[in-house]
C-alpha cells in the first residue's frame, strides 16, 4: 500500500516532468527531463562531485547489451555512470533483478569502452561517440566505477553489493521515488550521515568531553586515526562537506602537496603540522572506556565544517597506496541539537574558516541578494497578457524544495499553481545560467550547473556586498528566463540530435553580443514572450552555434569539452552574423524604457553621427572607460572587454571597422550617462 503523501508526490513529480518536457517541445523527452533532475539532485546532496553529462545510449544488438543515461569522471580515477529506469505514470515496483540489470548494462558500456574502443563503432558526430571516447581516454586511471540507478518507481533496496574485478571497484546504488521524496520532504538536504565507530572500526573513538558552556551545544575533543577518516570519506564523499561554507567553491578533491608529502614521508608529524578538522553532529553517543575516560561510539548527521582539504588529502593518499594508518588528526566535534542545526552550524562553519577569508560567494542561498530576490518574486505580479486569463507570479526558488513546500502549505494547491505556474518557477542555478549566458559566458554555462553557479557567485561578489536586486533587476531576470527557455524549444525543434544545452547558451549569448545587450527586455517582460523577430534570429543562431560546436576543425575531439573553452565562444563571437533590422533595441542594456532602432538599420545618418561623435576620441579614453567600468561595475563584462580592445586598436593607429563603430558609440554614450568624464 503506497502512502497517500508519496502518491501525491508522484503525481506532482510527473506533472512537473511533463511540463518541463512540454517547454522543451517533446513529450518523448520525459525520461531525459527526469534524468536531468536526478543528476542535479545527486550533485546537490553530494553523491557526485562533478555534474554528470546527460547522454542516452542503448544498444540491444551488441553482446552483452549496453545502456547508459549519463556519465562523469571524478578526480581522474572514478567513473560515475547514470542508469535510468523511468516508467512514468503511477509508481511501479522496481525489483532487485530489474535494478541489477540496469546497473549491469551500464557496467557493460564501461567495459566495452575500455576494452574494445567502442567509440569507433558509433557515429562520430553523436553525443554517444564523445562519451565513449572520453571514457576510453580516462580508462587507464579508473579504479572505481559507481553506477547510480535512478527510477520513478519503488525499489526494494537502496544499494547492491559492491564488487571488485580486475582491480576496479564497482559500487551500485538506487535512487527511487521513495528516496527522492525523503529528500523533498526534508528540505532537500542529503540523508543523514551516521557513523558507528564501534561497528565500523571495532572500538570507540577516545574523546575528552569539554565542560558544558551552553545548553545549545556540547563539545568534544578527539584524535582520529587517519585511516578512519579516509574510510569515512570513502563512503560518504562530499556529503560530509554539505555544511562547509568553503567547500562549494574550493573543494576540488586535489591533494595539497604539503599534506601529501607529510602523510607519505613523516606521518608521525602530521598531528603537529596540521590544524585538524572541526565537525558537527546532531547527536553523539559516548561510553566509558575500560582504561578510563570516554569514547564516542556513534554520531548522527556528521558534517566536517572545516578541514575538507585535510580529509580529502588523506583519502586520496590512501587510494594511491600510501599508508595513512600512522597519521593522527585532531578533531573538535560539536553536538548541536536538531532544531538548532540550521542556525548554529553555518556560523560554526563560517567562523571555523575565518583564518582564511570566506568569500561572499561561499554562502550561497543565504546571501542577502538571493533572499531579497526571493522576496521580490513573492510580491511582483507578471503583466496580464492576451494568453493569460489572470495575473501570475514568477517564483524564485532560493533553496531547492521551496516551491513544493509552499504549495503543500497552501490550503488550495490548485490556487497556488494557478498563481505560481510551474513554468514560472526558476532556481538560483537557473538564474546563474540566464545571467552568465546574457553576459557572454556560454562556455561557463557549458561546464555544468554547479560550476556555472560558482562562476555566477564569483561575479556577483565582484559587484560588492552592497548590491541588492530591485524591481527592474527582477523584471530583467525574468525576461532573460523567457528568452532562454523559448530558445530551448526553438533549438529542440531543429532536431540537431545533441548538444542542446550548449547550442542554446551559445545562441542566446551571440544574440546578446550582437545587440550589445540592448535587446528590449522590458518588452519581453510586458508581453511575457519574445516575439517572432527574435525567434527567427534564434533559429539562425542555433544553426550557427551547431556548426561552430561540431566543426571538424575544432581543437578538441569531444564537442562538450570544446564548448567549455573560451576559444569556442571566441570563434562563435567572431563568426559573421547580421542582426535582423526588425529587432528593436534599447539605448542601454540597463534602461528598460527608452527604445531606439537597431544600429544596423539606423541608416547613413546614424553612422555619420556615430563617426562625428567618435572623431577625436582617443584610445586612452576607451581604456579609461574600461578601467572606470571595472571599478564601478557600470557596464557589462562584454562592454568592458570591448572598450579595452578598441582602446588598444586606436592607440596602435587602427581605425574602427563599420561593425565596431555602433558598439563603440553605444559604450561611450552609456559610460557618459553613467558618470564617466572624458577628462
Write the layout of secondary structure elements.
Elements: H1 4-23, H2 30-44, E1 53-59, E2 66-74, E3 78-85, E4 93-94, H3 96-116, H4 127-138, E5 144-151, E6 154-155, E7 159-165, E8 168-175, H5 177-185, E9 194-196, H6 197-201, E10 205-209, E11 217-225, H7 226-236, H8 247-250, H9 257-265, H10 270-273, E12 277-281, E13 283-288, E14 294-300, E15 303-306, H11 308-319, E16 328-336, H12 341-352, H13 368-379, E17 395-397, H14 402-409, H15 413-419, E18 425-427, H16 428-438, H17 442-445, H18 449-462, H19 471-494, H20 500-514, H21 521-527, H22 532-550, H23 559-563, H24 566-574, E19 585-586, E20 595-596, H25 603-614, H26 619-632, H27 637-651, H28 660-673
**Assembly level:** single chain
Number of helical runs?
Answer: 28
Determine the structural class based on helices, strands and strand pairing: alpha/beta
Q: Spans of 5+ residues with little confidence (pLDDT < 50)?
A: 245-255, 355-363, 590-605
Helicity level: 40-55%
Shape, principal axes of CA atoms = globular
Distance between the termini: 77 Å
Tally of structural domains: 4
- Global Rg: 27 Å
Largest sheet geometry? 8 strands, mixed
Mean pLDDT across the residues is: 82
Strands, total number: 20
Proportion of residues in β-strands: 15-25%
